[in-house]
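dumping the sequnces here before i forget
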Amino acid sequence: MWHLFQFPLCPFSRKVRLLLGEKGVGYELVRESPWQRRDEFIDMNPTGQTPVMTQADRDLILIDSSAICEYFEETTDKAQLIGGTAANRAEVRRLVSWFDHQFYGDVVAPLMHERMKKRLVDRAAPDARILREAMKNAHSHFDYLDYLLDHRTWLAGATLSLADLAAAAHISVADYLGGIDFKGHELVKRWYAGLKSRPSFRPLLSERMEVIKPPEHYDKVDF
Amino acid sequence: MWHLFQFPLCPFSRKVRLLLGEKGVGYELVRESPWQRRDEFIDMNPTGQTPVMTQADRDLILIDSSAICEYFEETTDKAQLIGGTAANRAEVRRLVSWFDHQFYGDVVAPLMHERMKKRLVDRAAPDARILREAMKNAHSHFDYLDYLLDHRTWLAGATLSLADLAAAAHISVADYLGGIDFKGHELVKRWYAGLKSRPSFRPLLSERMEVIKPPEHYDKVDF
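..and the predicted 3d for all of it:
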């Protein structure tokens, strides 16, 4: 049995969970709050970041969400998520990287800092200017997604891929933290509604992070 | 023929160049300064970041250094650089990600900002405090590399892998910018000297970035 070290609002762990869900790989969740820098966790992963996956006997420790996703893509047959030609796979990886770096840095990280870390750790109020900037950035990113979805059924092409899961993972965290407004982005909204209704996504949407409440529409497929 | 859009001190482009060199893939360099945000480049890659690779007819555009490396790993037979079992490959990818994110963020990015961007774009003096912090961070990272190299011939195991190339790419940029002191890190020094003497590395070491001079020892295999 696999163990996945994560916390409910970690977008990188959500990406891994969506992939494992699509592939039907079983795992147990282990709650890890990276900001506590627990010694035993740092010993496993010197970066101190989630997600980390281990086998129950700790014979194999997988670190880094990209390495974990590639590992399960290579070792499972069900639901190819980095598939197609080499050029298709490059497009999937480009978009995963886009969400893991650009969207995360522009939108998710500032929201997590202002609305989660400040609340849980620093006991400080969020900075309204930074929140506004993050929400503005989300709109620019959604313009690009609208453009992609105007040409394609899924973000990277004709089939569901890790790009969609990475995008949904990051968007869901930003949405939980009140940073997403779908107005004016009908294509994104329709695509995201489709993802939300997948069995791989349902368990994530029902989880809550202590003291932080998501907006009313957060877990609704029809929003 | 492939074109590689890059600038001499881009660590992510250096990683790709080392991989292409090891694999014997031919390409032409195209100089791109991302901070100029050239329209034609942004049209190709909306993130505006190097490296980007294109075929001469622009039929295929590869974006993001990880996607590019995986592409050539999948489409060439020579010099496997993400090889071995699925667990070995996960270890290679973990370490590549370590250098592309942790080492880059802690060491390379601050050095590039203080010693390159401020010089070329902002015409401002570097902040000595930030430079000292980056150099201190490099020492902590080298402690971890010493630990790995005490157990392994190469960073990810018994054979040269993309992890070594990613590490060398980032270290070489930090070294060019005067941020690396190998004292007390004999294992790292010996390993890096071995990489510097490889034919894939020599062309990079002879290049210069306008107005910014590297330290005396920078391109010497015996340093």
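The mean pLDDT of chain B is 96.
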